[in-house]
Each structure stands twice: as C-alpha cells, then as structure tokens.
Amino acid sequence: MEQSPTFFDPTLFLLFGFMILIYFLMIRPENKRRKTHQDMLASLEVGEEIVTAGGILGKVSKLTDQYIELSIADNTKIKIQKTSISAILPKGTLKSI
Q1: Under a CB-based contact definition with an 8 Å cutoff, are residues 70 and 61 in contact?
Q2: For the chain, how big is the Rg over CA atoms in Å?
Q3: Distance of alpha carbon 37 from alpha carbon 43, whole angstroms
Q4: With bands split at pLDDT 50, 70 and 90, how would you rate the model's confidence at 87?
Q5: Does residue 1 surpass a pLDDT of 60?
Q6: 53-60, long-range: CB < 8 A, 24+ apart
Q7: Paired strand residues for 88
C-alpha cells in the first residue's frame, strides 16, 4: 500500500510555536513599555520634577517638541532630549532629598 503524503510537518509547527513564544516574551512587553514611556512624555508639563536616564534630578522649566529645559539648581539650567527622561517624580521629591 502506498502512503499518501501528509501536510502536517512537525518542524513547521515547532517553528510557528517559537515565533508565537518570542512575540509574547519579547516583542509585546517592549511595545507596551514604549507606549507607556511615550504617554509619560506626552503628559509632561512645566513645573514637574523628573529624573533623567543619567540620574540627574530637576524641575522642568521649558518644553519644546524634542527638548526640555531642566532646572537642576538655582540659576542652573540644562537642555536635554525628551527621550532621556526616565520617570516623573511625585511633587516635593526634590525638596525632600
């Protein structure tokens, strides 16, 4: 008796399973993190206290599309890119440190 060819290939099934696993373990969490970071940057306002990726703490004194002027001490302001902001701190954090 001749065997008819089957269209079920276990290797293809395994490859498809790995692609789904990679999506849920790597791609999806990264997209979620990126979206929350973009939402945080969009909600940024003058007067908020932030921390940069380099660990600099300061208060936002001026906003533009891509840059922020950050007041880090009395009469000391620096300009940074919006994307380098790590987190927005609760009000009063700078005074308590």
Answers
A1: yes
A2: 24
A3: 10
A4: very high
A5: no
A6: 53/84, 53/85, 53/86, 54/84, 56/80, 57/89, 57/93, 57/94, 57/97, 58/94, 59/94
A7: 50
Phi and psi at residue 55, to the nearest 5°: 90, 10
Q: Answer for the pair 61, 77: CB distance below 8 angstroms, yes or no.
A: yes
76 three-state secondary structure: strand
* Alpha carbon distance 39, 93 (integer Å): 22
Single-letter code of the amino acid located at 55:
G
Full DSSP string of 12-75:
HHHHHHHHHHHIIIIIHHHHHHHHHHHHHHHT--TT-EEEETT--EEEEEEE-SSEEEEEEETT
Confidence at residue 5, expressed as pLDDT on a 0 to 100 scale = 61
For the stretch 17-56, pLDDT in tens is 999 999 999 999 999 999 999 999 999 999 999 999 999 9
